[in-house]
Amino acid sequence: MIQLRFSPKDNRFYLRFRYSKLFFSIAKSIPKGCYHAADHSWSYPNDSKIIKQILNEFETHDIRILPKEIPKQCGILEDFFKATRDRNFSFCTIKTYYSHLMQLLVFTEKLPANIRMNDLESYLDHLMINRGVKAASIQSSRQAFVFYFREVRKQFTHLKFPRMKMGSKLPEVLSAEETRAIFNALPNRKHKMLLLISYSSGLRVSEVIHLKISDIDLKRNMIRVQQGKGKKDRYTVLATSLIEELKEYLKVREYNLLLRQSYNEVRGNPWLFPGAKNRPLHIRSAESIFTSAAKKAKIQKKVSFHSLRHAFATHLLELGTDLRMIQTLLGHASVRTTQIYTKVARSRLENIASPLDRIPPNK
Predict the structure, then answer these.
(1) Which end of the chain, N or C, is less packed with Cβ atoms under 10 Å?
(2) Is 204 a catalytic residue?
(3) Of 110, 136, 152, which marks where a domain is finished?
């Protein structure tokens, strides 16, 4: 077996293999190499061009690596990134697929070209049996492998996985009282407005943090969501009761920014909820704000920032809003996704009488 490992002691990569005239010849031809007779290894400087040459030369001989040691400039998944750019994949999809592919390479210690079908099967078995990964994550891994190894590399032209039976879980829905308690638990105006806007308009956390001031239409009580999930634009509602509070927040936002930035810098900051260095608020910060508020409000249910979106949809349904309109506001591609809220809407369930109530009582 051919093995390439990085040594932090001398900042060099060490190449080891059982003696072979061919391998020895290849190792010798790579520039700046040094042969170590004591352990029959070759070492090379931590230079991305040299490491890339080693990988290219030994790729057909099934070289074993630790992917996280390999310099990013070597581009062991560059074809993946090019394919996602060509197809205009969303950042979240790219990030998810890349994570699955890297975990596979770490598990096998192989380059993509050396991956075999039994490697994919062994890795997926490892996820299910040893790590107890949920079915949704397994399915996501499979999608990443089909895209990369079948569509991009043409490595497995007939790669297909058996259909998985996915579990169906209903979301935990916050009541109107619980939702209000979460808002009231936040003394910080910016943090409170963040959650109010998300609930008021049914936004995902990634959508609310990327809102720009120009996306808010106070005259029409509408919010424009630009490039939401699936890279789609849509409009959603803004609560009338929130207008005045939002106007006050915008004044406070500008004042707080002026404390640390010039007037021109503040004017050039488009984000409704600004973060550091003219960037939007980080998604982890938004999630932390919600978690802290739910804890202060003593919410016992298992909830997350996304629960505000669930509450928006469920509460609208309980108020009698048409399901198709809720689908449009949420930006769901299919009404089947929206139909899950019919299973948790209290008003729909309250109108159903148990058959026990129809049995005459004992006399």
Answers:
(1) C
(2) yes
(3) 152
